[in-house]
């Protein structure tokens, strides 16, 4: 098959922001290879769905997206349907049997050559069984040299500093999907950040499966820290030296790897947001042991206290799992009491999802769906009360915010306490530029959002 005109590609990106970075790399590769992005899916010659396969709900969403995209064979120009991402990495052979609608199933290692795969699939004569592009356990890590088409607004970006995970959490399928932890070289990460800041990016979100494990796997003979200890701190201090007006947000940290050095680094570097994302999953010792979280309840309580004491004004985000196999009412009540006492600025709750190929999936004591739903509602209702109290504490303060967009006659912004997509917003009246920092006097609060007005005559750099 010949292609007298540029191939038009429709693209669907599902799942977390780590998957989003993979989508950006694939899109950049397609554009580099002379293809076009279809504005309307009906016009696409090929549709690619970058799937999520972390839990049962995300699997269903991915399959539904594939089936919906397949309808374009009848209603649009679609000649080929390609499935990529975490779900394909996790179940490549099963999907090949169960989804004959798909033309190609692409694993994570094949992300850099997606353009080549598109041309090969389109050159086939007629639809046959799905082609499998899968080369074993994941080992690919996108670096600065990878082409990238950013899907985020111009003023913020995600920078993946590592890939994979070495933690043994019994509920999690990520190590099976994403492979062992693999850190990017520090100079490569810094080169990407400098380029993004030069383009006008005002917020850098550092991501990986565990950002606090960054560097522990790097060559001990390479220049820099010899054993990986403190390498995240070294990276943050180097980012602090990058010229430009921006802030850095640290996402997906693991409590086991927090150190006093990391606390001190965040405290002294003013370009690092006073914000920490640290999934804790539970507080009860038995639950933490069954989850294999490598921490205890007392360790977590002490760590939270150390972080709050060492970083004044810190906003802590965490997540918990309710309904884990064997969780008793007493253990759940212990979690509720901790949520009430810790007063996390940002908190999410997940109902345990029983996953195959995980130790927890085979555990006895699986709880009924109704119990998990009930505990989820109780935990979120409590956090809503906590959040209302926390948000009221911002009233009267003047915060530095990053303006996101104009909406409903005003502005929508985010403070240091609000990560993109997952946290609340600051609704602002007054003058400020979208994509830039502003100082806002907070005048009101709801459970999750703040209300304020821009302050004249003061620097946006203050907080």
Helix content: 25-40%
Strand order of the largest sheet: 2-1-3-4-5-6
> Which runs of at least 5 residues are low in confidence (pLDDT < 50)?
223-228, 457-463
Task: Kindly state the number of beta strands.
Answer: 19
Rg, alpha carbons:
23 Å
Plain-language structure description:
Helix 9 (about 230-240) runs parallel beside helix 10 (about 260-270) and helix 13 (about 330-340) runs parallel beside helix 14. The N and C termini lie far apart (about 60 Å). The radius of gyration is 23 Å and the shape is globular. The chain has helices spanning about 15-30, 55-70, 70-75, 85-90, 90-100, 115-120, 175-180, 185-200, 230-240, 260-270, 285-290, 295-310, 330-340, 370-390, and strands spanning about 10-15, 35, 45-50, 80-85, 105, 130-135, 155-160, 160-165, 180-185, 205, 245-250, 270-275, 315-320, 345-350, 400-405, 410-415, 425-430, 435-445, 450-455. With about 475 residues, it is α/β, with parallel strands linked by helices. Strand 15 (about 400-405) and strand 16 form a beta hairpin. The strands form four sheets. The chain has a six-stranded parallel sheet with strand order 2-1-3-4-5-6, sandwiched between helices.
């Amino acid at each position: 098959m010949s292609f007298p005109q540029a191939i038009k590609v429709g693209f669907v990106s599902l799942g977390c922001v780590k998957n989003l970075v993979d989508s950006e790399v694939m899109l950049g590769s397609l554009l580099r290879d002379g293809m076009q992005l279809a504005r309307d899916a009906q016009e696409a010659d090929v549709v690619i769905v970058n799937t999520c396969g972390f839990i049962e709900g995300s699997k269903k969403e991915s399959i539904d997206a594939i089936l919906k995209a397949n309808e374009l064979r009848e209603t649009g120009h679609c000649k080929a349907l390609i499935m990529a991402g975490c779900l394909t990495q996790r179940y490549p052979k099963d999907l090949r049997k169960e989804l004959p609608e798909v033309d190609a199933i692409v694993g994570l290692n094949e992300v850099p050559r997606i353009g080549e795969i598109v041309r090969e699939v389109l050159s086939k004569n007629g639809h046959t069984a799905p082609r499998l592009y899968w080369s074993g356990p994941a080992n690919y890590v996108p670096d600065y040299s990878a082409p990238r088409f950013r899907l985020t607004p111009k003023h913020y970006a995600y920078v993946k500093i590592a890939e994979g995970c070495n933690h043994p959490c019994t509920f999690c399928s990520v190590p099976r999907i994403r492979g062992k932890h693999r850190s990017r070289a520090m100079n490569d990460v810094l080169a990407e950040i400098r380029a993004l800041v030069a383009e006008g990016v005002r917020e850098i979100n550092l991501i990986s499966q565990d950002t606090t494990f960054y560097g522990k796997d790097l060559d001990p003979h390479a220049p820099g820290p010899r054993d990986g200890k403190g390498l995240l701190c070294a990276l943050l201090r180097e980012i602090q030296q990058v010229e430009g007006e921006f802030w850095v947000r640290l996402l997906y940290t693991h409590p086991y790897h927090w150190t006093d050095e990391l606390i001190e680094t965040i405290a002294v570097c003013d370009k690092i947001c006073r914000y920490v994302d640290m999934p804790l999953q539970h507080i009860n010792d038995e639950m933490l042991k069954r989850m294999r979280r490598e921490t205890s309840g007392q360790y977590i309580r002490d760590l939270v206290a150390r972080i709050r004491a060492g970083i004044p004004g810190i906003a802590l985000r965490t997540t918990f799992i309710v309904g884990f196999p064997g969780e008793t009412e007493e253990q759940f009540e212990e979690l509720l009491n901790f949520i009430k006492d810790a007063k996390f600025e940002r908190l999410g709750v997940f109902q345990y999802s029983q996953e195959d190929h995980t130790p927890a999936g085979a555990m006895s004591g699986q709880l009924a769906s109704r119990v998990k739903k009930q505990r989820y509602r109780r935990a979120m209702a409590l956090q809503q009360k906590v959040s209302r109290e926390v948000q009221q504490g911002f009233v009267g303060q003047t915060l530095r915010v990053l303006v996101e967009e104009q909406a409903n006659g005003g502005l929508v912004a985010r403070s240091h306490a609000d990560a993109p997509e997952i946290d609340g917003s600051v609704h602002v009246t007054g003058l400020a530029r979208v994509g830039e920092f502003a100082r806002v006097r907070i005048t009101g609060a709801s459970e999750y959002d703040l209300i304020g007005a821009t302050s004249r005559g003061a620097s946006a750099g203050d907080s």
